[in-house]
Structures are given as structure tokens and as C-alpha cells.
């Protein structure tokens, strides 16, 4: 992990990945660079070099090989979202990126289901006491995603 999770309320230690949100790729790269690096309070950060994401940013996308979503993954996506996605892919191609088609071994929704299981189990370990207390103000959409059935709770606490 390149950015420390020290001080972050964990939800899933396997999947938690903090990072910047910014108005531009360049801003995101600069913030990422500032956040990256070894943190003595988070040993996972020692395994990675902070790298130079901002240093290579200005070279552009020419020559990069970028995969696009398979047609099966486009099903059910709103028209406006697909239009924006396709426009971005076309812009990257015009800038010299090589666009390739790939097939995934499974549907993304299959991975989402497995991810939900991981987040549910690990999330309950960290915040189960909060979601189980109906007197605490927890988002009604989040509470059921974290709560586990009794058998899962026993397995999580072993």
C-alpha cells in the first residue's frame, strides 16, 4: 500500500485504498505524491517506492495500451454514462493510446458479490458494534450492508 491507512477508520483491511479526489489528473498526481511513502505507523507502506507518478504524467498517453470494457459489461449502464465513457476512450485513442478489447474470465458483478462478502466480514469486525447499536446514528443504507447474521458473527469473532 503506497498511502498509509493509519488513522483511517477501517472498513476492509484487505480492500481499503485511500487516495486523492481532484479536479484534474495533474492535481491528483501531486496529491498522491504528497500522501505516498513510508509511514512508521503503517508497516504496509514500507513495501512500496513512492514512485514518480507526477514525473511521467506530462509524457501523455501515446503508446499506452488501454483495455476497454467488454460489450457484456456495458449492458445496463445508463446511456449518458456510456456516451461519456466512449468519448473518453475516443479522446485517448486520438492522443495515441492503443485501445484493445479484452474478455474477463468472469462478469464484474461476480467480483462485486465476492467483494461484498469481504467488506461485510471485515467491516463487521471493525464497526459491527456501531451498526448493531440501534441508538447510534448509522446510515440506514450502510447498516444492513455491515450487519451479519448470527452464524457469521460467531465465525468472525473466533
What does this structure look like?
The chain has 158 residues and is mainly alpha-helical. It has 3 domains: 1-59, no CATH class; 65-101; 108-157, no CATH class. Helices cover 42% and strands 5% of the residues. The chain contains 6 helices and 2 strands. It has a two-stranded parallel ribbon with strand order 1-2. Helix 4 packs across helix 6. The chain starts with 24 loop residues before the first helix and ends with a helix.
Q: Give the structural class.
A: mainly alpha
Apparent shape: globular
Regions with pLDDT < 50 over 5+ consecutive residues?
A: none
Domain unit count: 3
Tally the helices: 6
Instruction: For the largest sheet, list the strands in their spatial order.
Output: 1-2
Number of strands: 2
Amino acid at each position: 500500500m503506497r498511502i498509509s491507512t493509519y488513522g483511517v477508520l477501517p472498513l476492509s483491511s484487505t480492500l481499503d485504498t485511500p487516495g486523492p479526489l481532484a479536479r484534474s489528473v495533474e492535481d491528483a498526481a501531486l496529491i498522491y505524491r504528497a500522501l505516498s511513502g513510508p509511514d512508521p505507523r503503517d508497516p504496509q507502506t514500507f513495501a512500496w517506492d513512492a514512485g514518480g507518478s507526477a514525473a511521467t504524467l506530462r509524457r501523455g498517453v501515446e503508446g499506452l495500451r488501454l483495455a476497454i470494457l467488454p460489450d457484456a459489461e456495458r449492458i445496463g449502464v445508463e446511456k449518458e454514462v456510456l456516451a461519456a465513457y466512449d468519448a473518453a476512450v475516443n479522446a485517448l485513442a486520438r492522443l495515441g493510446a492503443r485501445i484493445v478489447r479484452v474478455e474477463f474470465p468472469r462478469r464484474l458483478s461476480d467480483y462485486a458479490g465476492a467483494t461484498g462478502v469481504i467488506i461485510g466480514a471485515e467491516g463487521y469486525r471493525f464497526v459491527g458494534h456501531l451498526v448493531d447499536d440501534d441508538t447510534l446514528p448509522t446510515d440506514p443504507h450502510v447498516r444492513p450492508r455491515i450487519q451479519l447474521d448470527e452464524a457469521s458473527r460467531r465465525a468472525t469473532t473466533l
